[in-house]
Amino acid sequence: MSLAMNKPELSAYLSQIFSQIINDFAIDALDMDGITMRLKVATRHLRPGGTVSGPSMFALADVAVYAMILSRLGPKALAVTTSSSMDFLRKPEGGSDIVARGRLLKLGRSLVVGDVLMFPAKGDKPLARATMTYSIPPN
Amino acid sequence: MSLAMNKPELSAYLSQIFSQIINDFAIDALDMDGITMRLKVATRHLRPGGTVSGPSMFALADVAVYAMILSRLGPKALAVTTSSSMDFLRKPEGGSDIVARGRLLKLGRSLVVGDVLMFPAKGDKPLARATMTYSIPPN
Amino acid sequence: MSLAMNKPELSAYLSQIFSQIINDFAIDALDMDGITMRLKVATRHLRPGGTVSGPSMFALADVAVYAMILSRLGPKALAVTTSSSMDFLRKPEGGSDIVARGRLLKLGRSLVVGDVLMFPAKGDKPLARATMTYSIPPN
Amino acid sequence: MSLAMNKPELSAYLSQIFSQIINDFAIDALDMDGITMRLKVATRHLRPGGTVSGPSMFALADVAVYAMILSRLGPKALAVTTSSSMDFLRKPEGGSDIVARGRLLKLGRSLVVGDVLMFPAKGDKPLARATMTYSIPPN
């Protein structure tokens, strides 16, 4: 199996379909082993006190797994998030981008499970982990 | 045990500390049994196709549980989300507000666990469920 | 919709297919609103110190949701657990049975989501909560 | 930081405190990066059809994370499971042991989060993933 969409193709496609939010994210790397997706942290992602908000971290994990699915199945793929689990491990400081490293644990015909670890842009202690499950509707 | 903050006190307090996001939410009801928190769905909460986004649902569940903690422990309470699990059950249509019904399953000294079911404003089939765990730092 | 199997039919069927473990469980109640399933706590379910083990609680939640699926879809139903989330809220004392109250949040064609709260047989403070997701293979 | 208990010390300690279940498990490897824990699959772990049961997989993930906590904090450590999330990815065949590879994502003063991937003894496609959270009671 190989990628159905490479990094520039996927970036262009996401910009087109997610025009509202795509300024928040950038794909740093993409291959068959997984994705590195960046949350470009701005004031709108912060909570009082300067931490990056939980919903922003959720959005990052969700889009990272969705992008991996598209990269494998191509732009026509339909996929909806059916469940997620997250653990918040350390306080994410607002002054730094957050980088998500995602991989697909399973790419089945009807279920896809992706695993994501999130780090500060310059740091190696994980801020959060997430597992996102997507359902692929029958054709 | 009784409420440390009632509905108007809590609404006022959330408006003050979460000025960025509080226009998104309203407390419909609050008592010792739990909370009913409303997501006032607007264009910024939608995904292409008109569904309410996953991060918006996450934010609703998170703020519902946080508000219950404040209602019990008062405005000085410190609490940080440590984990969450969510299941997305049905497609949330964008034309309707979403109503979260939350209750606290455990209010411990260091861990709080809250359970949330989310419904369309006019409907009784749940759209999503979430469990949010908060940690209370030692004083 | 009505039940495809009632309580005695389901109890008999579970005894037949799960002969190894069915001595551990009993159905206390079953209707369209949900199930009450009992873990008949014995020494083999205990950890040092006398608490009921986590795997025993997992098994109780899992069988409660599986039994609800069978009660709706009949004995021919195929269903496999695809994900679970659990929160352990209070220490379950070994001297008492544990009672699980389960309901189905979604009974879709390919995904079923069930929610379970577990209580001591005589007590109203929940010991644990669980959500179990089952996948129904395409026919 | 270094290990408070090495592999033989930890194996001996687990045999002593978990005499009921320790015949089910073996530590294959242990260092500061994590643990490899083996479920020695026997008939009692199987479901009808020959799959390894969900509760057995849960037990494996739980003991793997607990063992890592002991390896770091020593035999006096108190730790109780507070939450877990699991995803079952592929059918685990009963003829083969299951090997869990665990690592600690966070070892805090009051919360520990461990991540586990489970594989067939001879195979590189994951059967399941789990995250287990433990609470360390204040001294």
Overall structural class of chain A, as computed from helix and strand content, comes to alpha+beta
Number of helices, counting only DSSP H or I runs of 4 residues or more of chain A: 2
Q: How is the main sheet of chain A built?
A: 6 strands, antiparallel
Q: Rough shape of chain A?
A: globular
Question: What's the name of the CATH homologous superfamily of chain A?
Answer: Hotdog Thioesterase
Compute the number of structural domains of chain A. Answer: 1
Overall helicity of chain A: 10-25%
Supply the CATH class of chain A. Alpha Beta
Main sheet of chain A: which strands, in order across?
A: 1-2-4-5-6-3
Strand fraction of chain A: 35-45%
End-to-end separation of chain A? 20 Å
Task: Write down the Rg of chain A.
Answer: 14 Å
Number of strands of chain A: 6
Unreliable stretches of chain A, pLDDT < 50, 5 or more residues? none
Which pair of protein chains has the largest interface, and what are the residue counts? A-B, 23 and 23 residues
Descriptors:
globular; 6 strands; homotetramer; alpha+beta; Thiol Ester Dehydrase, Chain A; 139 residues
How is this structure best described in words?
Four copies of one chain form a homotetramer. In chain A, 22% of the residues lie in helices and 36% in strands. Chain A has 139 residues and is of the alpha+beta class. A six-stranded antiparallel sheet of chain A has the order 1-2-4-5-6-3, covered by helices on one side. In chain A, strand 5 (111-120) and strand 6 (128-135) form a beta hairpin. Chain A is globular, with a radius of gyration of 14 Å. At the A-B interface, helix 2 and strand 3 of A face helix 2 and strand 3 of B. Strand 3 (80-88) of chain A pairs antiparallel with strand 3 of chain B.
